[in-house]
Amino acid sequence: MGRPGRLGPGRRSRQPVRRGRLPPGRLSRPGREGRAGIDRGRLFGRGAQRSRPGGRGVPVSGPVDGWVDLGLETEFPGLSLAVRECDGPVRFDPGVQERLAAIASRIRGRTAIELRREPVPAAYRAFYRQVGLDPDVEMTPVEAAVGRRLFDGGVRTPGPLTDALELAVLETCIPVYALDPGALDGPPGIRPARPGEQLVDADGARRGSPGRLVIADAAGALCWLFGEPHGRGAPGPSTAPILLAAVAVPGIPPMGVDEALDIAAGALGA
């Protein structure tokens, strides 16, 4: 791969360039034989709750594939971005906070250590190392969420959208992000950052890192892979609809990706 966390230029990208709602398509298939299973009961005391048809947060369509750079797809079979567009606007749901509180009550310092040995978190830690990220410095999404629950003393409530995404990652260990589909130029996908591309970080600073993986559309990079969007593509409080995007790495079963999107979509309903 060359430099850690960097992927060489010149790789082609299978990237659609049309606007509008994502078309229906086949379900994302991010894993292969021998994939990691989903077992969170031992960690958080119960399985994930799935949204049901006709319930809250009913999606406009089922999960469909975002695109992945051809070079990345070859190097990391199973890397995928599954997306789902959901109606809005986002509204407060006390049931989401109750579920977060129940999870927080089961999290102890030992939980964070045990979590690393679970199949799904271990798959993300392994992928981090493969692309030059140190999971002990830049924590994987589920480890970061567990850490927030520990250090904040329970449940933070920055807003219903953040709560919905946090619930999804805590119940499935699979990260889900939110984008504003009205700001996108075609479907989002995963590719290496290009020379000269810069992204807005959480502190408002613009930074570039050619070769580091990003989520992008036809117009350019939207955010670092496993990072939240803070510029173009970031949803606001009244954004409707919302585009949910789940990042799967090699070894993650498709049923887990579907479940993560179900949970986030269900938590976003009114």
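Next protein, fold it too.
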Amino acid sequence: DPFREAKALAVDAVRYALEKVDYTSDPPLNIPDKY
């Protein structure tokens, strides 16, 4: 299912971004934990 694969890639990208983000600064967007 292409949609499922795209969603999985997006989730991995968000996880990677959250790991790399600097938590001492205010993020421009609040990412919900459910993602």
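About the second fold: The chain has a mean pLDDT of 74.
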